[in-house]
Write a structure and sequence with these properties.
Belongs to the acetate uptake transporter (AceTr) (TC 2.A.96) family. Its main location: membrane. By secondary structure, the protein is mainly α. It has a domain of 185 residues. It contains eight helices and two strands. It has a two-stranded antiparallel ribbon. A hairpin with a 2-residue loop joins strand 1 and strand 2. Helix 3 packs antiparallel against helix 4. It is elongated, with a radius of gyration of 26 Å. The two termini are 41 Å apart.
Length: 270
């Protein structure tokens, strides 16, 4: 059966000869790992032998960095989306004097920023140009966004109290991220439904949040409503990212559960 599957059965004579040549201390280690008299690893005899939930670990094998990047993005985006909807704020007003986003700083700097950039570098290592670009870009977004939340950097103070100039600058910042996300959406058209939903809702979220900042000083009521719409799209985007990231963790080695991504079947390339 092993030979039929492309995995030739181990040469017992050779394994035993190599085992006999080992020094006594090394023999004890091998027997402790594989059982007395077993110079080779037998999965049938030791089905539970594993390291950190990985059976017969290949220490140079690269893990899938996708779930790490998606989940770090998802949790940070979800929290920000709730704040932009006004959750827990006086009058549910995300544009008031209380908050709304200062509490996101830790998540933005570490989970959304640092962790996602690490995931992007890992995607580069496995040859995924798209994944590397996306994760590093949004990791940089969260780090740059976190800078707005540090008063001692003086970013807002540099506008000398001109609220319109400051909110307009934020609007430009967010609209350009909407444009970049749209490019990512186009580049992802042959991936799967879950990823397309992430980029679609994120494009809309950036657009409406940017638009709300453009209108913040001249049309306050409309700006508030649009900001909450942007926050709602942000929350939906985060749910999609949670689903897509969790799907990558649902592997046969650890669970029976599967999260289908909705693979897109396309014709052959022209």
């Amino acid at each position: 059966m092993a030979a039929e599957q492309g995995n030739p059965a181990p040469n017992m004579a050779e394994s035993s000869a190599r085992f006999d040549q080992l020094p006594p201390g090394r023999k004890e280690d091998v027997e402790h790992q594989n059982g007395p008299g077993r110079p080779h690893f037998d999965p049938a005899a030791r089905p539970g032998a594993m390291v950190s939930q990985v059976l017969q670990p290949q220490y140079m094998k690269l893990a899938n960095p996708g779930p790490l990047g998606l989940l770090s993005f998802a949790i940070t985006t979800f929290v920000l989306g709730l704040y932009e909807c006004g959750a827990g704020l006086p009058g549910s007003n995300p544009q008031g004097d209380v908050g709304p986003n200062q509490a996101i700083f830790g998540l933005a700097a570490f989970m959304g920023g640092t962790v996602q950039i690490i995931a992007g570098i890992m995607e580069f290592r496995v040859g995924n140009t798209f994944g590397s670009t996306v994760h590093c870009s949004y990791g940089a977004f969260w780090l740059s966004y976190a800078m707005f939340l540090l008063p001692y950097l003086g970013i807002e103070a540099a506008y000398n109290g001109n609220e319109r100039a400051y909110t307009f600058a934020l609007g430009i910042y967010l609209i350009l991220w909407s444009f970049l996300t749209l490019l990512f959406l186009i580049a992802a058209l042959r991936t799967n439904v879950a990823i397309l939903c992430v980029f679609s809702f994120l494009t809309l979220a950036f657009f409406f949040l940017g638009l709300a900042n453009f209108l913040a000083t001249e049309h306050a009521t409309a700006s508030l409503r649009i900001n909450k719409v942007g926050g709602a799209f942000t929350v939906v985007c985060a749910f999609c990212a949670f689903y897509a990231g969790a799907s990558g963790l649902m592997i046969p080695e650890t669970t029976f559960v599967r999260f289908p991504l909705g693979e897109i079947v396309s014709g052959p390339e022209s």
